[in-house]
């Protein structure tokens, strides 16, 4: 798919050589068994590649932020032996970066104001109601990105080849919400670009976001990181284990057992002689590398 580079976008730092991965939890509560699976996979993949593993706190959706949850998450990661590289980044401290790139896209005609309510927009692909301007008497509520037609192809390192026609299946998606907050689909692309992320390892629930994120990245002239979407942890009703459905926080008293559960949920056999956190990672790392030919 041809990409229209936004020439006046702020340049990211000089690209790092090698592998840069990231774990990007939302601080809406402590880590639970489901989030640990994604954290473990991203951590192992970065370490197997002898690369960097960054920590980004995705606190842009302020109504969902729980005070102090960010520091609880960092304490949990340390207790589990998962140490990140460099200083953590909080999205809430990057407002100026988002605004500059938004302004650039807007000046290039890549964004447009939308007056549609959620009900008017519908649950399927956005029909482009406001693409050519807001009707008289209506006020702009949100801002959408103009999605070009065409099929996005990418390879998922866990699930294999994927494709999606974002224009037909999603439509022009929101980058700035009606409540004035930046949309996840926008900030995650900007953050990965400016942090030189080369590989994204995350839960399979975000597979459907990948194509639209790649479309936006290409419009920015940013590289598209490779992706791996790992299996979700489900509750007894078959729903994704999440903070929204009150998933219990990881117990702090037995980090080795928490690591062992996450390891098995990634499809691996139990590790022998992994009685400590250090021993677990020493045993797990070569098995991860062997499974993915790293």
Quickly list its features.
alpha/beta, 9 helices, 10 strands, disordered N terminus
Could you characterize the architecture of this molecule?
The chain has 294 residues and is α/β, with parallel strands linked by helices. It has 9 helices and 10 strands. The protein has helices at residues 33-48, 69-79, 95-107, 118-121, 166-169, 184-194, 210-220, 255-265, 277-291; strands at 20-23, 52-57, 89-90, 111-114, 142-145, 151-156, 160-165, 174-176, 199-203, 226-230. Strands 1-2-3 form a 3-stranded parallel sheet. Strands 4-5-8 form a 3-stranded antiparallel sheet. Helix 1 (33-48) packs across helix 8, helix 1 (33-48) crosses helix 9 and helix 6 crosses helix 7 (210-220).
Describe the SSE topology.
Elements: E1 20-23, H1 33-48, E2 52-57, H2 69-79, E3 89-90, H3 95-107, E4 111-114, H4 118-121, E5 142-145, E6 151-156, E7 160-165, H5 166-169, E8 174-176, H6 184-194, E9 199-203, H7 210-220, E10 226-230, H8 255-265, H9 277-291
Parallel strand pairs: 1-2, 2-3, 9-10
Antiparallel strand pairs: 4-5, 5-8, 6-7
Low-confidence stretches: 1-16
Helix/strand class: alpha/beta
How are strands sequenced across the largest beta sheet? 1-2-3
Shape: elongated
Largest sheet geometry: 3 strands, parallel
Helix content: 25-40%
Structural Rg: 20 Å
Mean pLDDT across every amino acid position? 90
Range of strand content: 15-25%
Distance between the termini: 29 Å
- Counted by DSSP, the helix tally is 9
H/E element sequence: EHEHEHEHEEEHEHEHEHH
Q: How many β strands by DSSP?
A: 10
């Amino acid at each position: 798919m041809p990409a229209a580079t936004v020439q006046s976008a702020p340049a990211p730092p000089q690209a790092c050589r090698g592998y840069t991965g990231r774990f990007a939890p939302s601080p809406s509560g402590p880590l639970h068994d489901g989030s640990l699976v994604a954290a473990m996979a991203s951590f192992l993949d970065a370490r197997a590649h002898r690369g960097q593993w960054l920590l980004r706190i995705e606190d842009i959706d302020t109504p969902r932020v729980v005070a102090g949850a960010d520091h609880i998450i960092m304490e949990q990661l340390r207790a589990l032996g998962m140490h990140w590289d460099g200083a953590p980044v909080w999205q809430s401290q990057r407002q100026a970066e988002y605004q500059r790139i938004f302004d650039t896209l807007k000046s290039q005609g890549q964004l447009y104001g939308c007056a549609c309510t959620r009900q008017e927009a519908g649950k399927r692909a956005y029909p482009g109601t406001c693409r050519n301007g807001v009707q008289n008497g209506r006020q702009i509520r949100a801002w959408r990105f103009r999605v070009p037609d065409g099929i996005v192809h990418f390879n998922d390192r866990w699930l294999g080849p994927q494709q999606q026609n974002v224009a037909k299946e999603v439509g022009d998606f929101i980058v700035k919400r009606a409540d004035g907050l930046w949309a996840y689909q926008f900030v995650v692309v900007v953050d990965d670009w400016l942090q030189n992320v080369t590989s994204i390892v995350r839960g399979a629930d975000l597979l459907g976001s990948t194509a639209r994120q790649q479309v936006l990245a290409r419009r920015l002239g940013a590289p598209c990181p490779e992706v791996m979407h790992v299996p979700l942890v489900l509750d007894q009703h078959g729903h994704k284990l999440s903070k929204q459905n009150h998933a219990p926080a990881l117990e702090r008293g037995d980090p080795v057992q928490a690591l062992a559960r996450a390891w098995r949920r990634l499809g691996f056999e139990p590790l022998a002689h992994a009685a400590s956190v250090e021993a677990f990672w020493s045993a797990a790392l070569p098995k991860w590398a062997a499974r993915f030919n790293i």
